[in-house]
Amino acid sequence: MSIIQKAVADQREFFRQGHTKPYEFRMNQLKKLKKMLKKWEPAILEAVHTDLNKSEYEAFATEVGFLYSELDDHIKHLEEWMEPIYVKTPITHKGSKNYIIKEPYGNVLVIAPWNYPINLALAPIIGAIAAGNTVILKPSELTPNVSALLEEIIAETFEPGLLTVLEGGKETSQELLDQRFDYIFFTGSIPVGKIVMEKASRHLTPVTLELGGKSPAIVHKDAKLDLAAKRIVWGKFTNAGQTCIAPDYLFVHEDVKDKLLVKIKKHIQSMYGKDPFENTDFTSIVSSSHFDRLTGFLDNGEIVTGGRSKRERLRIEPTVMDDIGWDDPVMGEEIFGPILPVLTYENLSDAVETLQDQEKPLALYYFGKNEKDQKYVTETLSFGGGCINDTLYHIANPHLPFGGVGSSGMGAYHGKASFNTFTHQKSITRQTTKFDYSFRYPGSKAGLKII
Ligand code: NAD
Q1: H-helix or E-strand containing 107?
Q2: What's the CA gap between 253 and 293, in Å, rounded?
């Protein structure tokens, strides 16, 4: 038996023995997780810095701080979420009680990416253990310090039957996917998402796929341009653009493009300094292959600001590129780096039609004052989720389920949506034995009238 097979077998046995189901057990695990994060917070922030050069402020806000609020939400509501739901009894069911039991799926596999290596590894785990499952986590090999730390601190805190980390690259991931799980939660790229779904289909294992895509920031001519520029710069260049819901490109009304670009330039300078290479807090690109892929995009169009890169430090300046067409390489795939291409439109309905020809993005951001236009854009186009007059903010509200649609993924999590994702809703009719209706049995015509 390989290490992977043994880990899966141990978790199967742990779940079968019923350890994970009681409320007290689940609550204890959530509290342990919170304590673990508090105890190891400095080491976590340091590991994220070593792997990605993320500043302490950014790592706290987007990784650990986010997890504390997710944990608090689960701790506050767990008892209520676990309650069975009693539903109405139709006349045909008179005498019975009808309800839904919240049942854990069982053994969960979580596969995580590198861009928010703590948040995206642990946030699904919060929902999975709150819902009473066991979890094997496969973190990303591209953030080795974070992955090693996660393995160490999780092993110190949790029984491996409940939660364990198996480090490794795609081979480990594939061997894990060859095992039988009851639920798979994958965050990563679209091509790997397809592999996960194909492998999951062999055991008919349900999946959540948190994928990516090209998320537009549309700026209409009635937008508050200075605020739009500031919020787009923040959303795009946080984590050096390596955010699944970062605005991938700017789609702006042609009348306001020039003014907007001046403001974007100004906000890049005020957030990252005149020389971003001097800014020690600007996140680096995760690997040299991603660096080469990104710098390859810089050959097209006209650089409005930025454009310099340093391979030895894996840094690329916050860059804005004008004169970009839909057929340019930078528009051919998710950018996932600090490069913002700019495209324009003449009227909003043409812009919407153009976007309808693209794959459904994970996020969409619309900037404009007119409420009819806001409604038109957000209700006509299909996308995972997004903001009106802001970027990224929707992800931080635990009351908003987060997830993609179409090629940006399936399923959702955060807050109660996480608990629901890892919970099977088991419907029960508890029938009375005090009386019996004849209408449902063969030969009765009354039943037809009632139904
Ligand atoms: P990735 O798909 O390359 O890797 C994700 C995980 O899958 C890693 O743990 C990796 O080891 C594993 N993996 C890689 N190749 C595999 C294979 N052939 N078979 C099985 N497993 C494999 O993604 P990434 O580069 O780590 O992350 C970037 C992508 O993730 C972007 O597309 C981004 O949009 C997306 N993303 C989505 C979200 C979201 O919440 N929707 C969040 C973050 C990142």
Answers
A1: strand 107-111
A2: 29
Task: Please report, as a single letter, which amino acid is at residue 413.
Answer: Y
* pLDDT tens column, 163-194: 999 999 999 999 999 999 999 999 999 999 99
* Burial state string for 403-435 with b = 16 or more CB within 10 A and e = fewer than 16: bbbebbbbbbbbbbbbbbbbbbeeeeeeeeeee
Q: Quick one: which atom of ligand 1 is closest to the CA of 384?
A: 41
User: Helical H runs in 83-169?
Assistant: 119-130, 144-157
Q: Is the dihedral of CA 384, 385, 390, 396 positive or negative?
A: negative
258, pLDDT greater than 90: yes
Looking at the structure, tell me whether residues 173 and 269 fall in a common domain: no
Q: Are residues 145 and 243 in the same domain?
A: no
Tell me, yes or no, whether 173 lies in a domain: yes
Q: Using an 8 Å Cβ cutoff, are 189 and 409 in contact?
A: no
Pocket test for ligand 1, best of 146, 187, 400 (most atoms within 8 A of CB): 187
Secondary structure element (H or E) that encloses residue 209, with its range: strand 207-210
Q: How far is the CA of 244 from the centre of ligand 1 (A)?
A: 10
End-to-end, the C-alpha distance of the chain in Å comes to: 55
Q: Does 142 share its domain with 223?
A: no
CATH number for the domain that contains residue 247: 3.40.309.10
Residue 447 reports pLDDT greater than 70: no
Angle between helices 65-82 and 23-52 (to 10 degrees): 160
- On whether both 386 and 417 belong to a single domain, the answer is no
Active site amino acids: 210, 244
Residue 418, amino acid: S
Ligand 1 touching residue 188 (CB < 6 A): yes
- Total count of domains within the chain: 2
363 lines ligand 1 (CB under 6 A): no
Please indicate, yes or no, whether residues 340 and 422 belong to a single structural domain of this protein: no
Work out the burial of residue 6: count CB atoms within 10 Å of its CB; fewer than 13 is exposed, 13-18 middle, 19 or more buried. exposed
